[in-house]
Design a protein that fits this description.
The protein is α/β, with parallel strands linked by helices. About 35% of the residues lie in helices and about 20% in strands. The structure holds 6-O-phosphoryl inosine monophosphate (IMO) and magnesium ion. 6-O-phosphoryl inosine monophosphate binds next to α4.
């Protein structure tokens, strides 16, 4: 059975975790394929509220397998804390969470370098999550990374650290005057992490291939959003995940071929948010922004960093673009209920750049920074939708809005969410 990819269509935080949590019920295996603990998914279910950064959202179904693929970078203490936290709250993890032996390991110098690099960039700071993600992927690509297979082998770990620690010390001391680290201390700490993580480590591409060969449904959970992609995002205000969090990255990040992906589901918020710096043409600074940020049961603050998210109208130019680069086969629209109080709703249908109208995203950062949104206005519904469970229960203006977004995406919307609870969702068309 071909795999299903769930991908973020905007700048992250679209509700991917919430959608995966819903779809996971019908899957056999759920896998993360990219990024690291810069991702943050909040999931609310009968066990309570959970924030996941590395463990796939399928973990709450006791019969599902969960995989952290080779494309992910893992920060060992963060992953161990997440596992402990889940176990403390009664979620079984052992025997069904598999960590790729090829995944890269985030080391203390990555976190340090992330924050030092950000300070050094001054006004051009990207506003990263400060989790060390870009330096970790830089080391992966630069062949100076450490992988899980070596983390769990104390001798291989020592050998790797004997090169890496002095190499990084030199860099950190000369560039930033940071105190050197000792090989022994790092080895002691990371050997212990390796020992604790060892029971979870597997050749995960085999786990995934086996499930697929057995006809099982495999769900590949994207992190971040398409507009944060290194190639197609708003460069340089992007993240550095390799492979990409785009749907095309899913095959590489888990170890399957592109022919083994059957569906790509794009998740979009009914409006637009962004955390961190970078262009966001539809950003608002008025009372509508406050309604979008504070209006729902779960206000718009980053689940990883707690930063307030920048909020604005739905950007159809960006949405259409991300639908195409992901080859979406269907889409989900989340947080429709947040628009409930608004009398009118705007959608950005084109940008004006250098006095010219364009309906696609410019590549140049200067062009993107000055892109002025051109809006179309739709009537609001001013009606509580949070209890709606069927499409026909929605007010006609809300149905029209969903149809409008569907036309923009040129992709069928299969699911609409009207609140954070598992059942606050309207299924329009079977996705699996
Ligand atoms: P989820 O999976 C929203 C953003 C950061 C910053 C830029 C680079 O929760 O949707 P990084 O730390 O990755 O080097 O930061 O990318 N960013 C996210 N924004 N949701 C995410 O993930 C993000 N992951 C990274 O805010 O602007
Ligand atoms: Mg998030």
């Amino acid at each position: 059975m071909p795999a299903i990819v769930v991908v973020g269509g905007q700048w992250g935080d679209e509700g991917k975790g919430r959608i995966v949590d819903l779809l996971a019920e019908k899957a056999h295996l759920v896998a993360r394929y990219s990024a690291g603990n810069n991702a943050g998914h909040t999931i609310i279910n009968e066990l309570g509220e959970f924030k996941l950064h590395l463990v796939p959202a399928g973990i709450f179904y006791p019969d599902k397998l969960c995989v952290i693929g080779n494309g992910v970078v893992i920060d060992p203490p963060v992953l161990l804390e997440e596992i402990d936290h889940l176990e403390d709250r009664g979620v079984s993890v052992r025997g069904r969470l598999f960590l790729s032996d090829r995944a890269h390991v985030l080391m203390p110098w990555h976190r340090l370098l992330d924050n030092l690099d950000e300070s050094a960039r001054g006004k051009s700071a990207v506003g990263t999550t400060g989790r060390g993600i870009t330096p970790a992927f830089m080391d992966k690509v630069g062949r100076s990374g450490l992988r899980v297979a070596d983390l769990i082998d104390p001798e291989a770990l020592l050998e790797a650290l004997s090169f890496l620690v002095p190499y990084k010390n030199e860099l950190l001391e000369k560039l930033y005057g940071v105190e050197p680290m000792s090989i022994e201390r790092v080895h002691e700490e990371y050997r212990e992490y390796g020992a604790r993580l060892a029971p979870f480590v597997a050749d995960t591409q085999r786990v995934v291939q086996k499930a697929m060969a057995g006809g099982e449904t495999v769900l590949l959970e994207g992190a971040q959003g398409s507009l944060l992609d290194l190639d197609f995002g708003t460069y340089e205000y992007v993240t550095s995940s390799v492979p990409s969090s785009l749907a095309a990255g899913a095959a590489l990040g888990i170890g399957i071929g592109p022919t083994q992906i059957g569906q790509v589901l794009g998740v979009y918020k009914a409006y637009q948010t962004r955390v961190g710096a970078g262009p966001m043409p539809t950003e608002l600074h008025d009372e509508t922004a406050t309604i979008l940020r504070e209006g729902g049961p779960r206000p718009e603050y980053g689940s990883t960093t707690g930063r307030p998210r920048r909020c604005g109208w739905f950007d159809a130019v960006a949405a259409r673009y991300s639908a195409r680069i992901n080859g979406l086969t269907s889409a989900a629209l989340t947080r429709l209920d947040i628009l409930d109080p608004l009398a009118a709703i705007k959608v950005c249908t084109a940008y004006e750049v250098d006095g010219k109208r364009t309906d696609t995203m410019p590549a140049g950062s200067a062009a993107m920074a000055q892109a002025k949104p051109l809006y179309e206005e739709l009537p609001g519904w001013q009606h509580d939708t949070s209890a709606c469970r069927r499409f026909k229960d929605l007010p006609s203006q809300a149905r029209d809005y969903v149809d409008y977004i569907q036309d923009v995406l040129e992709t069928k919307i299969c699911l609409v969410s009207v609140g954070p609870e598992r059942d606050q969702a309207i299924s329009l068309k079977g996705v699996m």
